Amino acid sequence: MSRTYGSLVLEREAVSSSRDASPGGRNERSRLLHRGRRHSYEPVNQTQASVYSPDAIYVKVDLFLHELKKRFDRLEQFKKETLTHFDAQLERGYQALREVRDACSPYHSGELLWGVARHRAKIFVETLEAGYNDVIPTRETLDEKAHASMKLMESYLSELEARAHSRRKDLLDSGWKRVDDSINATLDLFEEGYDKAKKAKDLLAESISHALKQAAESRLITYEDLPVPWRVNPHITRGYRFTESKIECITSMFKPSNETVNIWSHAIGLIIVLAIAFHYYPSSDAFASFSKMDMLIAGCFFAAACKCLICSTMWHTMNGIADKCLMERFACVDYTGISFLVAASILTTEWTAFYSVLGLAGTILPWRESFNRADMQWARVAFYVSLALTGFAPVLQLNITRGIEWTFYFYAPITKSVCVYFVGAIIYASHVPEKWWPGLFDYAGASHNIWHLAVLGGILFHYAAMMELYRGAFKRASECGCSIG
Ligand SMILES: [Zn+2]
Asked: Minimal CA–CA distance to 202: which of 57, 63, 22, 1?
């Protein structure tokens, strides 16, 4: 039986218990249970501060949140079934736990993503800071806040469980058997969660040194040898790099590993995109008709494409680094690159669609030139607002004014890039084909390799589509030939 649970029960509930209550745990608890704001000048437990690295704390918090969900679900069900009511202070703790569970639970079901533990710890702290700032201890850094908040939440949770436990006793005495299973299961989960959290801090450091040792022996290691935060895809069984040296990460680009295809597909892709942006695009026939704004929009697309490819290459080169913080930082860089690219792709399409929409009024060419004039400020505001707010407005507008067929014709060029992105994303998410034949696609042909080619294909198709859209828009605008009133 757990110390924490025991000390609480003895202290608050006077339920007879033979559990071993540690004095340290009791002090910590009783302080927390007074629910006073603890101040930063209170010394943080020194032994803990030196043993816990921020990463170990995030992992610990992550495990705790996982346990919290299970335990709180039970508690909630118990509360509902037995119509139990808590006093005002405990009720507030109950609400805080519920908010934490709800805020953090969308991340429970997802696969393990880089930085997810830290991200969840952040949400956890923010949730409490938003509604319960008066009870959570003041701390400087996120890991300290997360650690202190976790302890507070655990004290609430076990206090509530203790109440539920004594209530169960009352109910059992009055012959209500049904509750027994539910609360016993709750207690089991609590034990399990406590033990896991206790072990988590050593686990990470241990598994990192194990992986480093393996990598020193055989250069490439297996999925099983990887520490948990580095594991992404269990169907890629071999070929992982793991090193403490950044230089070694970079030189590993030139040696075969399961990242070789990922690294080089986007490194070469970057060279292709740069060649287009600085050579093929300026020498294209449509380029002569481009206004400054057109160039800016096209420039955004090229910049986004390059950023995406650079970030991706960096991430795949560096993800074998045995430093969790650094590895997660590169992963974040990778995600922002992709979302930026998608946003820029939408922007170019909308821009050219607006040409056609606005071109109907016969104002497109003069409008283009006077777009930056001082008296056009409302037109500019209207344009940017509609661009930002109405992703589908051009589709709708074209549909109404020109008919479905015409709209289809207008958007036909971008269907290729959209399809490629879309199919790529589905393959990326589904881990096909390596899911069906684990180990067969460790070095090439895995879903992530296909996704990389899809991103590159999407960029190239989108470039082609963008040029076609511009050509069409210029042609229609010049055919119209009217001028602004
Ligand atoms: Zn990638």
From this structure: 57
Q: Which residues are annotated as a binding site?
A: 316, 448, 452
Cα–ligand 1 centroid distance for 468 (angstroms): 29
Phi, psi (rounded to 5 degrees) for 268? -70, -40
CA gap 166, 417 in Å, rounded: 62
Domain range list for the chain: 3-213, 248-480
pLDDT at 377: 47
- Residue 243 pairs in a beta bridge with 321
Give residue 451 CA to ligand 1 midpoint distance, Å: 7
Give the closest residue to 314 by CA, choosing from 286, 299, 336, 293.
336
CA 13 to ligand 1 centroid distance, Å: 54
Q: And the tokens for 50?
A: 């030196």
> Which residues make Cβ contacts (< 8 Å) with residue 76, sequence separation at least 6?
98
DSSP three-state, residue 13: helix
pLDDT 10s digits, 336-348 = 666 667 777 777 7
Q: How confident is the model at residue 197 (pLDDT cuts 50, 70, 90)?
A: low
Residue of 363 and 409 predicted with greater confidence: 409
| Residues placed in the known binding site for Zn(2+) | 316, 448, 452
Residue 223 CA, ligand 1 centroid: distance in Å: 18
Task: Give Cβ neighbours of residue 126 (< 8 Å, ≥ 6 apart).
Answer: 103
Distance 450 CA to ligand 1 centre (A): 10
What does the alpha-carbon distance between residue 239 and residue 214 come to, in Å, rounded to a whole number?
12
User: Exposure pattern of 457-482 as b/e (b: 16+ CB <10 Å)?
Assistant: bbbbbbbebbbebbbbbbeebeeeee
Confirm if 182 and 77 have CB atoms less than 8 A apart: yes
The closest of 396, 50, 408, 455 to 267, measured between CA atoms, is 455
Asked if the bond preceding 433 is cis, omega within 30° of 0, the reply is yes
Distance between Cα 455 and ligand 1 center (Å): 9
CB within 8 Å of 327: residues ≥ 6 apart: 114, 229, 230, 318, 319, 321
Residue closest to 402 by CA, chosen among 356, 362, 363: 356
C-alpha 448 – ligand 1 centre gap (Å): 6
Q: Distance (Å, rounded) from C-alpha 457 to C-alpha 154?
A: 50
pTM: 0.53
Q: Which residues of 141-169 are buried (b: 16+ CB within 10 A; e: fewer)?
A: ebbbbbbbbbbbbbbbbbbbbbbbbebbe
CA 312 to ligand 1 centroid distance, Å: 5
pLDDT in tens, 50-106: 445 677 777 777 778 877 888 888 888 878 877 777 777 788 888 888 888 888 765
For 276-306, the DSSP string reads IIIIITTTSSGGGG--HHHHHHHHHHHHHHH
